[in-house]
Amino acid sequence: MMNGVTTNGTPVTPKSEDKSKRKGSDPLISTARGKLQSRRSKLNDQINRELRMRNGAENLFRATGNKRLKELVAVELSFFNSNIQLLKEELSDLNSNVIVYQHENCTSNVPMIPLGLKETTECDIEIPIKDFILEHYSEDGSVYQTEIDELLLFRKAIRTPQRNEEGVELLTEYVNQLYYVEKRFSDKMTGLHFHWYDSLTGVPNTQKTIGFEKGSVLFNIGALYTQIGCKQDRTKESGIESAIKSFQLAAGTLGYIHNHFTNPPSMDMQPESLTMLVQLMMCQAQECVFERFVMKDLQDGMVPYIKAAQEAMMVSVYYEETALLMSSDPVKDYIPYSWISMAQVKHEYFKALAHHNMACAILDPNDVEDEYSLQYFLSAHLSTEEDTNENSKMKIPRSPEERLQIGKAHLKESLNCYEEALRLHDLCKQLRKIDTFLDILKTSHDECLKKFSELEEEDNFNLDLVLSQTIVPRSERTLETLTPDFKSVKVKDIFARLGPIAIFNAKNEWSAPRTVILKKNHEQGFGFSVRGDCPVRIAEIEQGSVAEAGRLKVGDFVVAVCGRDTKWAKHEEVVNYVRQCGNSLELRLTTPLEVPDSSRGSSSPCTPRSPMNMKGDSLSSHSIKSNRSRLSAPWIFMRKGSKEKSDRPEKSKELEDGEIFLR
């Protein structure tokens, strides 16, 4: 079976077990994440209602000339604006609530930032599709009620996907199915409107294009990956690896939207927002790399501590860049303030960890006098050739006094960074609610302070002040964005009964189907030949034949033979159908208004292009060449005793192998 049809060309209805996979969830209504998403959905609806009422009041304010009425409407406008602002603040608080997305075992881990899903309302696609089928395909739209119901059920399921790989697969399947829907039905269908709410602000956006629907679902795939990454158990190595991959896939999906969709109406899909979100997801993936290194590779020794310091500095630099993107226009007015604060706090926190680990590298291990370790320690610091201050130039610490100086300098810098992180954390109301993050910051700060105080007490030398050097950010694991493999999720064209999508699509035009009845006697054939697959086409008509009298046209598509649908039929099937009809042949034909070019006529429409080929590239020349020998072989229905019969031996030499003559 291919594309929803059997091998004999008969379309089939998808099995019930296939539909059961599309039920989605409600969405995890019994969990904290599900309740949070349900509250977001209600807030989105409330914001939408307030916006509609405000728009109506604004129109009335502009239209009326009554001074008293203007004053009343102005009061109402201020009321609506106040309500909308309060609702948006409440929604912002929900977007800042990251704890419910974390794994219950990750109380000792720094929380990650997830993305909420875009919400959508029900879309009335039944009437527009039926009208388009009647107008464009000249068929009764009610015949395809089963397919329309399946598409509606599919769309209902993707509104509440499960927060796991099954949910991602469901959304991916729907995106792939939209490829077929977009090819079958034009965006010009009247009455078609897709409503989607912005992920962070709840502002509704409406578009008629199926591309908007596709982009919104792709955004939800990326958002779902962020939620999957956040809820991984990062106390285990397997959980950390899963989180890394999830954040990479989230970044790849959001980057895919950035590269393939232009002029999006919603702010969450604007290039500036997507660039920031991709950077944020890669930050969190790099943070997981640091956690994995500390869990598995951090051992007692100078080099392991130095590597940990460089890994932490790499995370710090990433978050510094992310904070700059978040603080730029227009992103800073769009995202929750807690996100900016979180990025700034993490920048300072991981910088503090870097200096803390570097101090441990020079003070604690037993191999501090190893020459390789000392050289590695020196290479982990940025050179300061432009600095003329001898105290700030980095040298290989040979003596215990020099090591103590450098260690204290790094600890001092670490304390400064911890204190700055605590200060920024205290400034944000939403971050103050995250007790686990505050506990982590205080614990790390107290450990560093204790170590620094002990060195202060043991310091009996009158040493000059040494400034800490900048640590070179470096990671032994280079991360890149991962674009999901959309092709791995196979789909069947729901509307396959309309015919091969390469021929029967929204862009191609053809005449309304007409029925032709041809009758012959035992002395003559029907007088026409056909060639091609899915569907076969009239290739030649003999002068003075029954076919010519029936007004067959060269290039006509044979869409039915004696009541049997042949839009998906192969050569042999059509021949068998004609033979079974005897002397009376009923054909249902349609005439393309534009003659298909040679490449399309020679390629098999039974094998559609990849659903994720957004650019609509044509089939490769290799596939065209491989099908040419089969599709150019015609079946001939000619008259007995005609001139063609006497000429056939000579003409057959010019025809390709596989030609079949029917009398």
UniProtKB/TrEMBL annotation:
Residue intervals of the BRO1 domain: 111-501
Domain called REM-1: residue spans: 24-100
PROSITE patterns named among the record's database cross-references: BRO1 (PS51180), PDZ (PS50106), REM_1 (PS51860)
Biased composition (Basic and acidic residues): 15-25, 641-663
This protein's record includes keyword Coiled coil: yes
Family to which the UniProt record says this protein belongs: Belongs to the RHPN family.
Protein name: Rhophilin-2
